[in-house]
Amino acid sequence: MTASRFPHRLEGRGRQVRRRRKYGAGINTVGSAVQLVTNGLKATEYRPVDSDKSVDILVRFPPERRSLDQIDDLRVQTSMGHVPIGNFAQRVPAQRVATSIVSTAAG
């Protein structure tokens, strides 16, 4: 998740971890569901014939479904069906990391 668009972090400890195990949802499954709402889930790579570099092919929800509110509405596919992500994780506010660009004048 990028700090600028998603200033929350997800926690999944204690009761949430036990519930995740109960439903048979692995941490990768939950993480992949969150990636669909945030930056996207890498499906494959494509390398154009005329290039030495590959391009990642990402799968993600449409822009209108990529927000923090959508994370709360996510349902994770488990062995027991689709289960709300709130059973595994909760969003808590996290402090943003400030970045600055320092430039110096040559002279």
Topology:
Elements: E1 8-11, H1 15-23, H2 27-37, E2 41-46, E3 55-59, H3 68-73, E4 75-78, E5 81-84, E6 90-93
Antiparallel strand pairs: 1-6, 2-3, 4-5
Radius of gyration: 18 Å
Listing every helix as H and every strand as E from the N terminus to the C terminus, the arrangement reads: EHHEEHEEE
CATH architecture title = 2-Layer Sandwich
**How many domains make up the 3D coordinates?**
1
Distance between the termini: 40 Å
The global form is: extended
> What do we call the CATH homologous superfamily?
Multidrug efflux transporter AcrB TolC docking domain, DN and DC subdomains
Number of helices: 3
- Tell me about the largest β-sheet: 2 strands, antiparallel
Q: Strand-residue fraction? A: 25-35%
What percent of the residues sit in helical stretches (DSSP H or I)? 10-25%
Structural class determined from secondary elements: alpha+beta
* The level-1 CATH class: Alpha Beta
CATH topology: Multidrug efflux transporter AcrB TolC docking domain, DN and DC subdomains
Strand order of the largest sheet: 1-6
Main traits of this protein?
alpha+beta, 107 residues, two-stranded antiparallel sheet, extended, Multidrug efflux transporter AcrB TolC docking domain, DN and DC subdomains
Explain this structure to me?
This protein has helices at residues 15-23, 27-37, 68-73, and strands at 8-11, 41-46, 55-59, 75-78, 81-84, 90-93. With 107 residues, it is of the alpha+beta class. The strands form three sheets. Strands 1-6 form a two-stranded antiparallel ribbon. A hairpin with an 8-residue loop joins strand 2 and strand 3 (55-59). The termini are far apart.
